Amino acid sequence: MTALNPRIVTPFDMGALKLKNRMALAPMTRVSASESGNATPAMARYYERFARGGFGLVITEGIYTDRQYAQGYLNQPGITDSEQAQAWRAVVEAIHRHESAAIAQIMHAGALSQANRFVDQSAGPSAIRPKGEQMKFYHGAGAYRVPRAMSDEAIADAIEGFAQAAERAVEIAGFDGVEIHGANGYLLDQFMTDYSNQRDDRWGGDVRQRLSLTLEVIAAVKKVVGHLPVGVRISQGKVNDFEHTWAGGAVDAQAIFGSLSDAGVDFIHVTEHQAWQPAFIGNEASLVTLARRYAPDVALIANGGVQDAPTVERTLQAGADIIAVGKAALANPDLVQRLIEGRAPEPFEPSLLAPIAHIKDSELNQAQ
Ligand SMILES: Cc1cc2nc3c(=O)[nH]c(=O)nc-3n(C[C@H](O)[C@H](O)[C@H](O)COP(=O)(O)O)c2cc1C
C-alpha cells in the first residue's frame, strides 16, 4: 500500500495567500443558485463540508461574469452585481470558519451557453456550431446553438465583465483569489482552440494569437485584484469534445504555459482525465510536467482522477504543488481526513448528479 505523501498536508504559500495544505476542491457547477443567480444558504452548507473535511483550498463552481453572453446554465450562480456578490459572502465565511481559503472561479460560457436570462443568443469567436450536445444534467437538450461571432466591442465587454466580476468577488464577497476559467471548452478555450476560432483579426491565428484573449483577461483582472492570487485553468479536453488534444503537442504547451507565466499569473490549474498521464502521443510528459517545465515559477494546481494515496503520489511526482479533486470529493467531502487517517474513500456514484446536477439534500444531511 502506498502511504500518503506527507508533503500534501504541509502548508503552501500562493503569493500572499497561505494555504494550510495542498489539497483543493476542484470547481464543480451544481446549478443550485436561485433563479436570479444568487448563491443560496444550501450552497454555503455544501461548500462548508469540504472545508470541514480538510481541504485547504475550495475553488467554487464557474460563476458567470456579466449580463450579456456569459451565463451558461439555468440556476448557475453569477457575480454580475453587488446583490449576487453579497450572496457569496455566506459561502466564503463558511469556508473561512475552517481555516480554508476560498477562490472564485469566474467563467464565460461563450458558445456553450445553454441558458441565459439576459440574452437569447450565444456568442463565441466564430459563428460555428459547437461539437457535441448540450448537457442534460444542466437542463440542456439537443445541439448547441450557432453562436454569433463576437465583435471587438463584445470582446471588450467580456474582458471588462471578467475584471468587474473579479473585483466584486474580492471586494464584496471576500474571496481570497480568483481563477479565470480558460479550460473545458468555454469562451476563453473557444478562442484558444484552432477549430472554434477561425478569426483572421488580432484574436485569431497561431496559438499565441488565439491565447491573446486569455492574456488580456488576465491583465485586466490583475489590474483590479492583483494583490491577491490570480490564476487560470487550462485543459485540452472540453465538456463538448472530451478527447481533444492540442495539435502542436508539447510545442503548443510551451507557447501556452510560457505565455501565461509571462503574463504574471500566480497559479496555473491544469486538468486532464488523469493528471499524471502523458499528455501527447510519443511524449512521456504529462501536462502537469509540461506546465512545471515552461512556467517554473508559477504555483501549479493539478486535477484529474486523483482519489487516493497512490494517485496523490503520482500527481506530486509529475510536478504539482496543489492537487484539486472533483468527483472523489463529492463522494468524500472528508477526503483529506480520510487520506490522513488511512481510511478507504467511498466510491463516487454518478447517480449523485442525475438527472440534474443540483445539490441533493442527501449530501447536505450526510453525517461527517
Ligand atoms: C458535476 C461537475 C461539475 C463541474 N463543473 C466545473 C466547473 O464549473 N468548472 C470547471 O473548471 N470544471 C468543472 N468540472 C470539472 C472538474 O473540476 C474536474 O476537472 C473533473 O471532475 C475531473 O476531476 P476529478 O477526476 O477529480 O473529478 C466539473 C465536474 C463535475 C463532475
Describe the structure.
It is built from twelve helices and 14 strands. The two termini are about 25 Å apart. It has helices at about 40-50, 80-95, 150-170, 185-190, 205-210, 210-225, 250-260, 285-295, 310-320, 325-330, 335-340, 360-365; strands spanning about 10-15, 15-20, 25, 55-65, 100-105, 125, 150, 175-180, 230-235, 265-270, 280, 285, 300-305, 320-325. It is α/β, with parallel strands linked by helices and about 375 residues long. It has a single domain (about 5-365), classed as TIM Barrel (Alpha-Beta Barrel), CATH 3.20.20. Helix 7 links the parallel strand 9 and strand 10. Strands 3-4-5-8-9-10-13-14 form an eight-stranded parallel β-barrel, surrounded by six helices. Helix 3 (about 150-170) packs parallel to helix 6 and helix 7 (about 250-260) crosses helix 8. Bound molecules: flavin mononucleotide. Flavin mononucleotide binds near residues 27, 181 and 306.
The percent of residues in helical segments reads 25-40%
Task: Count every beta strand, where a strand is a DSSP E run of 2 or more residues.
Answer: 14
Instruction: Outline the low-pLDDT stretches.
Output: none
Q: Let me know the CATH homologous superfamily.
A: Aldolase class I
* CATH domain class: Alpha Beta
Helix and strand succession? EEEHEHEEEHEHHHEHEEEHEHEHHH
State mean pLDDT (0 to 100 scale): 97
CATH domain topology: TIM Barrel
Overall 3D shape: globular
- End-to-end Cα distance, whole Å, is 25 Å
Strand percent estimate: 15-25%
Rg (CA only)? 19 Å
Instruction: Figure out the total of helices.
Output: 12
Spatially, the strands of the biggest sheet line up as 3-4-5-8-9-10-13-14
The CATH architecture assignment turns out to be Alpha-Beta Barrel
